[in-house]
Amino acid sequence: MRFAVNFSVPMARLLSEGAVDCDSLKCPEWEGVVAAARPLRPVHVHFDIVVGNGGFDHLDFALIRRLLASTDTTHLNCHLMSSSDTKLSSPADKKRLVESWVAGMEYLKAQVPGCPLVAENLPFIPGYYSSEIAASPDLITQALKEADAGLLFDLSHARISSHYLGSSIKDYAARLPMDRLAELHITGLRYYRGYLSDHFEMSPEDWDAARWARAQIKTGIWREPDITAFEYGGVGEVFGWRTHDWVLREQVPRLSELFG
C-alpha cells in the first residue's frame, strides 16, 4: 500500500527539505501541476470525472490516456453522482440511476482499455450537495458489481453522508463492497459555512476514524487498497487557502506511519 499526499507548494517545499515523506503525490489532471510534482515523488493523478449526472463530451480522453501512461497512476477514477430530482424512495429512479452508473463506467472502460476503473462515493449534504440516492451504499455496491469496477472509498465523504443520513460510519461502510477497495481517501472534517465539510486538518475524532479504517484493513475485513491518500492541501481556489505548513509537518508523518 502506497501513501500519497495532495500536491501543494508547501508540501513540495517540505519534501525538498526532507521534513516530511510520502510514496506519491496526488495531483489533479493539470499538466503543470503534474510537471511540478514529478521531480519530487511518483505522481498519482486523480481525475475530475463524474458518472450519472451529465455526459462525457467535455472530457479530453487523449489527455487522460497520456497522463495514465506517463505517471504512476494505477487506475482511472470516477465519481458517482445523480441529478437532484432523483429520489431514493422511487424504485424506478433507483433502477435508472444504477443503469446510468453502469453504462457510464462501461463507457469509460472502453475509452481506456486495459486500465482498471474505480468509482468514488460522494458526500450527501441535504439541500446543498449531491443527493440521498447517490450516497446509498446499496446502490453503489450494486453498480460496482455490475460494472466490475473497484471502489475508491472516501472515508470523509462516507462520514459526512452517514452523519446526514442518521447512520453510523461503521454501518455505512459495512454495506459497501470493501473486497473491491482500491483507493482510500482521508481528511479532517469541520463545519464550514454551516455544513460538515472535508479537506481540513485532522482532529482527534478524525484520527479515531483513520485508526479504525486501518484496523479494518489490517484484520482483513477490508481489502488492502493500492494507495491511501491524505487529501489535505492542494492548489487553486478550493484548496490553496486551507493549506498550512504546520499541518503537513505534524500530520503527514503520523499518517505515513499508519498507512505507509
Describe the overall structure.
There is one protein chain. This protein has 260 residues and is of the alpha/beta class. The protein has one domain (2-259): TIM Barrel, CATH 3.20.20. Helices cover 40% and strands 19% of the residues. The chain has 9 helices and 11 strands. The protein has helices spanning 9-17, 31-37, 61-70, 91-111, 137-147, 155-165, 169-174, 204-218, 245-259; strands spanning 2-6, 24-27, 43-45, 50-51, 76-80, 117-121, 150-154, 181-186, 188-192, 195-200, 227-230. Strands 3-2-1-11-8-7-6-5-4 form a 9-stranded parallel beta sheet. A two-stranded antiparallel ribbon has the order 9-10. It is globular. The model has no long low-confidence stretch (mean pLDDT 95).
Tell me the helix content.
40-55%
How many helix segments?
A: 9
Low-confidence stretches: none
Mean pLDDT: 95
- Supply the helix-strand structural class: alpha/beta
Name a few traits of the molecule.
about 260 residues; alpha/beta; TIM Barrel; nine-stranded parallel beta sheet; two-stranded antiparallel ribbon; 9 helices; 11 strands
Indicate the topology.
Blueprint: E1 2-6, H1 9-17, E2 24-27, H2 31-37, E3 43-45, E4 50-51, H3 61-70, E5 76-80, H4 91-111, E6 117-121, H5 137-147, E7 150-154, H6 155-165, H7 169-174, E8 181-186, E9 188-192, E10 195-200, H8 204-218, E11 227-230, H9 245-259
Parallel strand pairs: 1-2, 1-11, 2-3, 4-5, 5-6, 6-7, 7-8, 8-11
Antiparallel strand pairs: 9-10
Helix pairs in contact: 4-5
